[in-house]
Amino acid sequence: MLVLDRTTLAGLLSPADVIDALADAFNQVAAGHAAAPPRGVLALGPGAALLTMPAALAPGAAAEAAGVKLVTYHGGNRARGLPTLHATYVLLDGATGRPLALLEGTYLTALRTGATSALAARYLARPDARRIACFGAGVQAAFQLRCLAAVRPPERVAVVGRDPGRARTFAARLARELDIDVGVEIDGARALHDADLVTCATTSATPVVAGRDLRPGTHVDAVGAFRPTDRELDSETIRRARVVVDTYAGALHEAGDILLPIAEGLIGGGHVVAELAQLVSGARAGRTSATEITVFKSVGFAVEDLATARLAYNRAMASNAGARIEW
User: Residue 284's pLDDT is what?
Assistant: First the structure.
C-alpha cells in the first residue's frame, strides 16, 4: 500500500489540476455515478467528535474507486498547542475493496475545499472579478486564495483577520507566493465595498460579512462554518444572493448560513437554486447577470475528497512517489 504525506501531496497536486478533477467528479455526480451518504458524527466527549466521510465513484456497475475520510475534532487542542482537526484518508480499489493508499487528510481537505470554491467561482464569479476580500488568515484562507487565483487571477487581495499581526504575516507570505498585491484591511465593511469576490474561511460562529456592504455583482464563498448554529454570512447576504451549495443534503442539514435565515422566516428552502453538480453539468445556470450577487456555501462533500485522493494516487504511481508498505 502507498503512503502519501503532505509534502508528497504538495508535489503531486496543483490547484488547477484538482479543480479539473473535481469538475469531472461533479459531472459523475450529476450523472448518478457517485455515492456519498451523509457525514457520520460520533461524539468523543465535550467539544470532541469523530467524523466519517465515505464515498464511491462508479461509472458502471462496479465501483471505479471508493474511500473514506476520518476526521477528528478536539476543540481543546488549541489550548494544548495542537491542531483542532486531524484527518486521514483511506483510498480503496472500488472493484476489489483492496486498500490502495493512506493519505494525510488535513492537507487533502484544505486543497479540495479551496479547489471546490474555485470551481464554483468559474460559474458564479464575474469573469472580470479581480479584487478579493479574504476573511481569515489561517491555513484554509491560504488555500482559498491559491485556488481562486487559478480561475480568477486577482490584482489585489484585502485580508481581514481578528489578529492584525497574524493578518500582516499572512498577507506578506501570500503576496510573495502569488506575486500580487496583498494587504491588510482592518475595516471589514471597507473591504467588502472594494471587492468583486469575497472568500470566508474563518472559525467565527457569528457573521463576518454583512449583506448591506456588498456591491452588486459580487461573488461570495463561505467554507468556515459547518454547524447549524454557526455562520459567516448574515441573513441579508443570503437574502440578496443567488445561492448555490455543494450538496442540498449537506447544506440543509449543517449550513447555519442557510438554516438560520430559514428559521428567521427570511427565506424558504427553495431560495437555494442549485448544487454544484448541476452547474458543472449545465443543468442549472450559474451567474445570470453582471449585477447579481452570488453565494457558494460549502460544508464539504465526500466525493471531493475521493476525487482528489484518486488523482494523487494516480500521479504517485506514475512517478514512483510516496512510501510503499506491506499491508
Answer: 97
